[in-house]
Amino acid sequence: MAAANPSVFLLMVNGQVESAQFPEYDDLYCKYCFVYGQDWAPTAGLEEGISQITSKSQDMRRALVWNFPIDVTFKSTNPYGWPQIVLSVYGPDVFGNDVVRGYGAVHVPFSPGRHKRTIPMFVPESTSTLQKFTSWFMGRRPEYTDPKVVAQGEGREVTRVRSQGFVTLLFNVVTKDMRKLGYDTGPADTQGIAGPSLPQGIPR
Amino acid sequence: MNPREEKVSIITEESTANDEDAEVGRREKSSKVQRQQRKKQPPRADSEEMVTGKAQPGQEEPEMHLLSMPARRGPRSLPPIPSMSRTGFAEFSMRERLREKLQAARSKAESALLQEIPTPRPRRLRSPSEKELETEFGPEPCKESQATSHRNDSQSYSRVKFHDAVQKIKSKPQAPPGFPSAEEAYNFFTFSFDPEPEEPTVKARAKNRDGTHQEEEGEEESPAGGMNKMDEEELLGSQDAKDFLLGLDPAPDEFVVVRPAEYEGTHTWLEKEKELLFFPSRRAVPTWKKLPENVQPRFLEDEGLYTGARPEVARAQQNVVENRLLRQEPERKWFGDDGRILALPSPIKPFSSRPRPLAQEPSAQAGLETHYKKAVKYVHRTQHVVGSADPPGSFQLDIDISGLIFTHHPCFSREHVLAAKLAQLYDQYLARHQRSKAKFLTDKLQALRNAVQTGLYPEKPHQSLDATQKTIKEYKSEIRETRKLRDAEQEKDRTLLKTIVKVWKEMKSLREFQRFTNTPLKLVLRKEKVDQKADEEAYEAEIQAEISELMEEHTEEYEQRLGEYRASYQQWKAWKKAQQKAKKKKKKQAEEHPEGEAEEELYPGEEPVKPIPPELLDHAVLEQQARERAAHSRRRPGEPVLLPELSLTGSVTPDDQCPRAEVLRREDVKRRSVYLKVLFNSKEVSRTVSRQLGADFCVHFGQIFNLQIFNWPESLTLQVYETVGHSSTTLLAEVFLPIPETTTVTRRAPVEEVEFSSSQHVTLDHEGVGSGVPFSFEADGSNQLILMTSGRVSHSVAWATGDNGTPLIPPPSQQSLGFRSALKRADAISSIGTSGLTDMKKLAKWAAESKLDPNDPNNAPLMQLISIATSGESYVPDFFRLEQLQQEFNFVTSEELNRSKRFRLLCLRSQEVPEFRNYKQIPAYDREILEKVFQDYEKRLRDKSVIETKDHIDTHRAIVAKYLQQVRESVVNRFLIAKHHFLLSDLVVEEEVPNMSSEGSGILGLSLFKLAEQKRPLRPRRKGRKKVTAQNLSDGDIKLLVNICRAYDIPVRKPPASKSQQPARSSRTFSDRHAASPGAHSPPHSPDTPLSQVSVRPFVEVSFQRTICHTTTAEGPNPSWNEELEFPFRAPNGDYSTASLQSVKDDVFINIFDEVLHDILEDDRERGSGIHTRIERHWLGCVKIPFSTIYSQARIDGTFKINTPPVLLGYSKERNVLLERGLDSVRSLSEGSYLTLFITIEPQLVPGESVREKTSDLLKKFDSQEDEKLLQATEKFQAECALKFPTRQCLTTVTDISGKTVFVTRYLKPLNPPEELLNVYPNNPQATAELVARYVSLIPFLPDTVSFAGICDLWSTSDQFLDLLAGDEEEHAVLLCDYFLFLGKKAWLVMGNAIPEGPTAYVLTWEQNHYLIWNPCSGHFYAQFDTFCPLKSVSCLIGPDNIWFNIQQYDSPLRINFDVTKPKLWKSFFSRSLPYPGLSSVQPEELIYQRTDKAAAAELQDRIEKMLKEKIMDWRPRHLTRWNRHCTSTLRHFLPLLERSQGEDVEDEHRAELQKQLGDYRFSGFPLHMPYSEVKPLIEAVYSTGVHNTDVPNVEFALAVYIHPYPKNVLSVWIYVASLIRNR
Question: How far apart are CA B1533 and CA B113, in angstroms?
């Protein structure tokens, strides 16, 4: 059994990158990775992954379905730097070059349970029309140096982006010992652990 | 209507839902409904409940109805019961059934509904329905019905039902049965529980029509008792019709009585309203109403008490409020003694709680305008560049001297004297007039008298008698005082006026007498008529009052005397009692009379007593006195008020009409001129222009002097100088100006006048009266006057304000406050200083101390200010708080929060404090955080100021280290800020726009061509390794690969047999042979067979981050290993970011050892069966490569010179000895051993160049003192160069130590090397150059990339470099180059790549016919064509006045031409199009060298030796460490020799010497040489040799340290370490 006084809490996330809506593009694949703060450490599962290439469905929805599973467990001492999942979607352009079709990020839901998230995706814009043309022509669209940029606020002011489409994610979140450490994130716990809910970091 | 409709629809739904079961429970329901209805009528509810409740369970439904019906009807419906019983059962049931049907239909909806609706709900609905009624039928019927309704309440509900039924019938065709329509439902809902307004009328009609029966019934649906079935049916039919009508036509005259609308006339309405409403009048309320009866209003202000200023309220408003208050609360508690509403002084805060908005909204254009700023001189910083704050700001004092007026001057004529006097008097008069003290005192007197009057006739007798008496007494004495004062003032006023008139008259007579006028002064006396009668009355009243008061006084006095008299008399009486009784009696009678009066006097509550005869006698006298005094001091009644006015309108007689003496005087005046000198701290700082004296003896200067000062001024003096004609200048007077308070700033400072006077004696031969000499206005010379030269200077002194409005005042701490104490308490300003005026607390304190009268009107504003200030409310915020309630939301106090370790840790981490920047997983609880975590950090903070000498044996270096630390911190902070500043290129990778002009791969066409390229070419080319961004890495992911290929020229063992050649050997032959003979593998004895032996068995040991690997042992002096060694790499703190990797300080140590096998077999007989050897390893040399180099270079591939000690005992370079002795000098330059290595990191890491470039970009942009054009040119130049040769580094600007960009040539300038180095070889320039290079190389090396975490290259100037005693290649190279330039060589800085340093700086010199390349860090030099030269490529050359970029095809020094004059080979920065602008150097004029303290060096030497010895003992914990003193002293003796010869060419002698001394020892050891920076590297160097690593039992050690001091604390350290084994 768990220790009476845990020093870390655990966050288990599983789910999947279900599908995407990119009206103009086809044959896309996506990459995901997690960005988290310094107090976080992955304990199990994969932090990043790359999916298969999917083609649009033939029905009305024109959905791009990946159903790409995510399964990772983090441990942490501090909710600061709560993990975010960063998605980047790639696909071929008219010349067959692999170009980025969208970046997006979302925090892993805080409360335990099943959550569905739809993330709007965007790509950085070229700095000029000429650049735009050449980048289209050469198949070298502007990309972020690191997709993780989209999970942070710093330095974003220098970029311009364009919206591209949506990706739908499904999360199943399980937390452990959050309440014991004094963090109440979810709906009232049915088990009603009357754990020590003392504010953190304050000497008694 | 929307909500209503909604409601309706809901109801319908509900009813439909209930429809199904409506059938089933209809009966029940209806009854229930009825019951529910009835519950609302409390008086009957109970009985009904009882009846129905009983009936329901057992009885049939008709029964139930029967029972319930009468009950419903109430007491009135008693009669029908018998009739009901009379009717037949069938009939009854028929009727019942009919009714049932009807009811069923009717109540379908309602029943369903009512069940749903709880009882309280209808109540809520009543009022709206009532309203509705009113709108439908007018209020009148409603009123009418009110009376009856409560009586008919019992029926009302059924009526409603009926009404509903009507509705139902009406709507039946529309809606399917059972579904009540929306209106129905709504109507039902709203109507159900209210008395119908028309009900009584209906009832009345019904009564009339149907007779008594009907009356009894009252209800349509209830059966009439005596009616038959037909009747019933008919009735029903008619009812239906009626219902129908009722439903259809809402206003049939049958039901509603139409009356004319009742109208109330405006008049009556107003009448009624008048009863209810009250309009406060706007007229003023008479005072008596507001005060208690018989009380006179009392005005505190007139009594001299201070009352605050009342807030401004309009008079009308005030009246309204007063009227209202009087009406509302007749107690008058809202009114004060003066009959006005009580009011606090203005409640409006004197300060706004928000900061004032900017005075003027600066227009957008104003913000965009450019301002010219004067160029600032490039200030040379001496030593502490970064840490030092701004230089002490210069402060400014503005002295405005506007003018000078003489109040007396030698050249004054008599008239002038009078005029000055008159002017003075007039000024005095004006001042007095302004103050009008007399008037104030008169008013005060009046008020006091009034007060006494009120006191004497108190309306409030409840006040304690004593208190009243006391106050009155006080008042009276006050009156006396005031009166006296007033009289004095009035007298003064009068005398002054008289004097003015007198002087004016004198002046006039003088003018007449001399027949000319000199001054334009003119006095006019204005008369103001007064009302004779009123004036007289007032005068008389005043005198009367005075007299009466005087009378009182006298009476009191008399009383007092009487008392005294009586007391004495009593005594006297006791004494006389026995003798004179009769006499006494008589006397007593006489005395009793006045006593009665006294009694009366004592009680002032009674009528004042008329003076008794003795006083009456006094009255006349008193009156006389009073009148006399009044006549003396006061204006006579009816006399006009005189107002003097002085003007300058008079005309001055022109010169030609004046007598000669006067003309002479005027000429003399004209010749005189005056100027002022300004003395600051009794030093003249400036003087005004010399101005001529005007005829009016005024001089106007109007000059402002701005004094730039650094300290608080001590004194400020003006000197008045007068010049007569062209002759001498005389000092008239000195004027001391007060130093302004800190609050006085320019533009706010008032102009002040300071008087001065001079003691000079001047006698003049003209009309001028002179100065200091007696003169007279009288003809006979009597009444003599002596006047001194005097005058006034008008000036203002103030502190200037800076550009941003801050006053330029030196810090007040500099002021001396001592002299002020004397003035304390005298004056607020002088005792607390003007600055105190802004400090309210101080002011309040002063006020309390000096017992300021709080009621004095003069002090009123001050007191108010203080009262507000001390109450703490008037805290003027100089900020605007956004989150005022922040405090409320803090869930713990800030102290508690600060005590929390976890919070602290989080804060520190977020501040990116180095110790915590990468702290991971901060524990969740405070208790889990160890104090230890903070210890290092706290220690560092503590140590910031403390210089620790533990690590640094010599203090200078400790200081330097500390300083370096500070520099590092500041640079790191700067870098951190820059790191958070992102450029687009940092975030987004974007392909460059293809450049058409470039010849590289950029052409669009080429890239198009590339598109067409085959995806999988047949001949694939080598592709670079994939680079890894260092973010996702963790420990163990990175490996360092070291490939040891081969080595050249390893020193070989020297046969010990050679010892035998020494003459001294003979004595020890036996033992030596004994020792040498057993070794079968050891070198043969014979000295003549050196080639046959196994000369050396070297192996390489590589250590990196505490991991040690070594190769196999190879043989021979040129071994080949070809082995790859793999090392795991751990980044500090597990942080694999670029910056962190760049700051890795670890070195890769590559040590070469010789493996020596020693046979230690004791017994020769066992030799056949066993081998017993010991492996010893002897250190031969090392190569040290910093990780930072590997990281930035990505790979290191090349042959490196092995760092071998200058003397390696027991080893020799065989090849040198045998083959290369006597070869040319070039070859000898490359003397040494070499090792070929290949080092790389797997996987390849992206070097952090981008960060560096970005930062330098940033720095370039914002921080430079270079000319903008030059900077643009550098950028252009660099861009051009980069375009042609992207790999070649082009350096034009560098960052100096304060982070500013400096053009690189500014660093190059001839600088003097230390004198003593120049004096060593005065005739040998080459030797001098080498010595200088050696000196430079002795300055410790500290790479910038390590110290500044890969941020940027900082170039310090040479003096900084020498002060810091640490720097990287650039600093060394710059210093060396500067020295060479001083020595007259042609020298350049070479920027290029070298092994192993990577991009570096070397120095190139032109000797007579060849170039030499100098490595500044090692002091070695190489010829241009030396293959072992570590410099592998040259990208640019930098001279003192130009930069040349290498545009040759090759960049290897072997293959290029260094002739910079050829523009085809070298692209120069300054050319004909951009000539060299003559940039000044950033280097100092001259370097000053301090001679290093020899004693300190010697002490350091001892300490290092001791420390090293201790360390060696520490490293050998399991063995005894013996020290051979003899050997140590021998070695110590050698070291200075080594230093002198710079470690060259001493080996043989040295060896011989050593051999001689320690012949019977097997000796292995060597001297180490290094520049001294810290102790740690020394220890490491000794450790890495592994000398201590021997476990031979009888080993002895020797260690000697020698420090040779060079100027400027540059120390050359020699460590000789050796192990000795005694030969048996």
Answer: 123
Whether B760 and B732 have beta carbons less than 8 Å apart is answered as yes
Nearest residue to B515 via CA among B402, B589, B415 = B415
Q: Which residues does B460 contact at the CB level (< 8 Å), separation at least 6?
A: B292, B295
Alpha-helical segments (H) within B764-849: 828-832, 834-838, 840-849
3-class SS letters over B303-335: CCCCCCCCCCCCHHHHHHHHHHHHHHCCCCCCE
Question: Cβ–Cβ contacts within 10 Å for residue B1206, how many?
Answer: 18
B1244 close to B1027: Cβ distance less than 8 angstroms: yes
Q: What separation in angstroms does the CA of B1523 have from each of B12, B330, B1595?
A: 115, 114, 9
User: What does the buried/exposed string (b/e) look like for B378-396 if buried means 16 or more CB atoms within 10 Å of the residue's CB?
Assistant: eeebeeebbeeeeeeeebb
Inter-chain residue contact A138 with B1007, CB threshold 8 Å: yes
Q: What is the SS3 assignment for B1403?
A: strand
Residue B1390 main-chain phi, psi, to 5 deg = -105, 120
- Partners of B677 in the beta sheet? B687, B719
Q: Of B1446, B1445, B1442, nearest to B1470 (Cα)? A: B1442
Is the whole model's pTM more than 0.90, yes or no? no
Burial class (CB in 10 A: 0-12, 13-18, 19+), B68: buried
Helix-helix angle B182-191:B2-24, to 10 degrees: 90
Token reading at B248: 């259809």
Q: Please, which residues bridge with residue B1571 across strands? A: B1612
Give the rounded distance of the alpha carbon of B683 from its chain centre.
40
* pLDDT averaged per 10 residues, chain B (length 1624): 46 46 46 47 44 42 43 44 46 62 61 49 44 43 44 47 49 50 61 48 46 44 45 50 51 65 83 83 78 74 71 84 81 76 72 64 68 66 39 69 82 80 84 79 80 62 62 78 83 85 84 78 76 79 79 77 79 72 59 46 42 54 76 70 76 76 80 84 81 79 80 80 78 81 72 80 73 69 74 83 69 44 40 48 63 58 59 53 68 80 84 76 81 80 61 62 71 70 77 53 53 65 65 70 86 59 35 36 39 70 84 86 87 69 76 81 68 79 80 78 76 52 41 83 67 51 68 83 80 74 84 83 82 86 56 72 78 88 88 77 86 86 81 86 87 85 86 80 82 81 87 84 83 81 63 70 79 80 79 82 85 85 70
Q: Which residues are registered as beta bridge partners of B1411? A: B1406
Among partner residues A76, A77, A143, which is closest to B989 by beta-carbon distance?
Answer: A143
Per-residue H/E/C for chain A: CCCCCCCCEEEEEEEEEEEEECCCCCCEEEEEEEECCCCEEEEEECCEEECCCECECCCCCCCEEEEEEEEEEEEECCCCCCCEEEEEEEEECCCCCEEEEEEEEEECCCCCEEEEEEEEEEEECCCCHHHHHHHHHHCCCCEECCHHHHHCCCCHHHCCEEEEEEEEEEEEEEEECCCCCCCCCCCCCCCCCCCCCCCCCCCC
CATH architecture of A9-181: Sandwich (2.60)
Q: What ipTM does this complex have?
A: 0.80
Residues of A in contact with B990 (CB under 8 A): 124, 126-127, 131, 135, 140, 142-143
Three-state DSSP class for B1566? Answer: strand
Nearest C-alpha in A relative to B985: A145
Cα–Cα distance, B1149 to B1581 (Å, whole number) = 10
Nearest CA in chain B to A158: B984
DSSP assigned state of B655:
G
Residue A43 at interface with chain B, using a CB cutoff of 8 Å: no
In the A/B pair of chains, how many CB contacts fall below 8 A? 108
